[in-house]
Specification:
This protein is an alpha/beta fold. The protein is 37% helix and 20% strand. The protein has helices spanning 45-60, 96-104, 113-124, 189-202, 208-216, 223-231, 235-259, 278-288, 309-327; strands spanning 11-17, 21-27, 33-40, 65-72, 75-76, 83-85, 92-94, 108-112, 132-138, 142-148, 151-152, 263-267, 299-302. The strands form three sheets. A five-stranded mixed sheet has the order 3-2-1-4-8, with helices on both faces. Strand 5 (75-76) and strand 6 form a beta hairpin. The two termini are 25 Å apart.
Length: 333
C-alpha cells in the first residue's frame, strides 16, 4: 500500500546493505536525508531480511513511506529483483525484492551500490549536469558505475561495469576475484596498505611508526592508517600514496579511452583523502590518456554526498519506479 504526502512526491527509504552494517534512511524528493536507523548485518539470509524489515517498519512508524530501495554490493539481475551473488552477504540467487515486498506491503527494488551512488550524484551531487559519467568508488576494492546520456548502463546481465577487475599487471598481485593484477589491487584502500608493507620490506627504517605496527600485526595496517601517516609526512606512507595516485591516474586513462566520459566522480572511503592524491592522479591521467594534448579531458570530481550517496540513490530509484507505476496507463481488455 503506497503512502504519500498529499500534493507531494512520496518519501522513500534507501538502504545501504553492507557486509558489516545496514543503514536505512528516509529520503525526500530533493535528496535530503530526513531520518536514519542502523543495525549490524546478520549472517543468514532470513536474519538479514528480518533486520531490513525491522528497519523499514521503524521508519514507517515515523514517516509516510511509499517505496524502498536497497543498495547492494553484488550482482543484481537486470530487472533489479534478485541478488545473484554478493561476496559479503548471505544471498545467492535470492528474490530479495519479492520477499521484502510481500513482508512490507511496499514496492521494493534492488540496485548495485555503485549504481545507486552514481544516480544520487547525478541527481543531487557532483555529477549534476554530466552527460556521460563514470563513478569510481574506491574503498576496500573498486566499484564502478556508468551513466550514458543520463541513463544507468547495467549491461546485458546487470553486472556492468566491473572496472576494478581490469587486469593492469599481468601476473601481478593476487585478487580475491581469482585473477592477478587487477586494478583494485593497486588502487584501493587495501592496495595502499599492501604497497606500504612492500615498501617497508625494502626500507624498514624509513618509517618507524608503520614498521612497528606491521611488526606487531601485519594484518592491522589499513589504507586509512596509511593515509593518516601520509598526512603527517611519513616517508613510506607518502611514497605509498604517490604510487596510489599513479595507478589511479593510469586507471582513469583506461576509463577515458574506453568510455570517453565528460565527467568522472571519485567516491568511496578513500575519496576523503583526495587532497593527498587527486592532483597527481589528474596529471597522470592527462599524460596517459590516448591522444594526450589533442583531445578534451574529462572533468574529475570527488563525491559531494559521501557515504550517504548509496542510500540517497537507492531511495530515488525506488521513487522513480513508484511514480512510473502510479502514472502508467491501465491496460484495456
Amino acid at each position: 500500500m503506497t503512502r504519500k504526502i498529499a500534493g507531494a512526491l512520496p518519501l522513500t527509504v534507501g538502504i545501504d546493505v553492507g557486509g558489516t552494517n545496514i543503514r536505512a534512511s528516509v529520503v525526500d524528493a530533493e535528496g535530503q536525508v530526513l531520518d536514519t536507523v542502523a543495525a549490524p548485518t546478520p549472517h543468514s539470509a532470513r536474519a538479514l531480511e528480518d533486520a531490513l524489515a525491522r528497519s523499514v517498519r521503524e521508519l514507517c512508524a515515523r514517516h509516510p513511506i511509499g517505496a524502498v530501495g536497497l543498495a547492494v554490493a553484488g550482482f543484481i539481475t537486470s530487472d533489479r529483483t534478485t541478488v545473484r551473488f554478493a561476496p559479503h552477504l548471505p544471498w545467492k540467487d535470492t528474490p530479495v525484492a519479492k520477499r521484502l515486498t510481500d513482508r512490507l506491503e511496499l514496492p521494493v527494488i534492488l540496485e548495485h551500490d555503485a549504481n545507486a551512488a552514481a544516480w544520487a550524484e547525478y541527481r543531487f551531487g557532483a555529477a549534476t549536469g554530466g552527460h556521460n559519467v563514470v563513478l569510481i568508488a574506491i574503498g576496500t576494492g573498486i566499484g564502478a558505475a556508468l551513466l550514458i546520456e543520463g541513463k544507468l548502463y547495467r549491461g546485458t546481465h546487470g553486472v556492468a561495469p566491473e572496472l576494478g577487475h581490469l587486469q593492469v599487471v599481468p601476473q601481478g598481485r593476487a585478487c580475491p576475484c581469482g585473477k592477478q593484477g587487477c586494478w583494485e589491487r593497486y588502487c584501493s584502500g587495501t592496495a595502499l596498505a599492501d604497497t606500504a608493507i612492500e615498501l617497508l620490506a625494502t626500507d624498514p627504517v624509513s618509517s618507524t611508526v608503520l614498521a612497528r605496527e606491521v611488526y606487531r600485526d601485519p594484518g592491522s595496517l589499513t589504507g586509512r592508517r596509511v593515509a593518516g601517516a601520509a598526512q603527517d609526512g611519513d616517508p613510506i606512507a607518502v611514497a605509498a600514496m604517490a604510487d596510489f595516485a599513479r595507478w589511479l591516474g593510469l586507471g582513469l586513462a583506461f576509463v577515458g579511452d574506453i568510455f570517453d566520459p565528460d565527467l568522472m566522480v571519485i567516491a568511496g572511503g578513500v575519496s576523503s583523502s583526495a587532497g593527498l592524491f587527486l592532483d597527481e592522479a589528474r596529471e597522470e591521467y592527462a599524460r596517459a590518456v590516448t591522444g594526450a594534448g589533442h583531445r578534451p579531458l574529462a572533468r574529475i570530481r570527488t563525491t559531494q554526498l559521501g557515504e550517504a550517496a548509496g542510500m540517497i540513490g537507492a531511495a530515488e530509484l525506488a521513487r522513480a519506479v513508484l511514480v512510473d507505476t502510479e502514472h502508467r496507463p491501465s491496460r484495456v481488455g
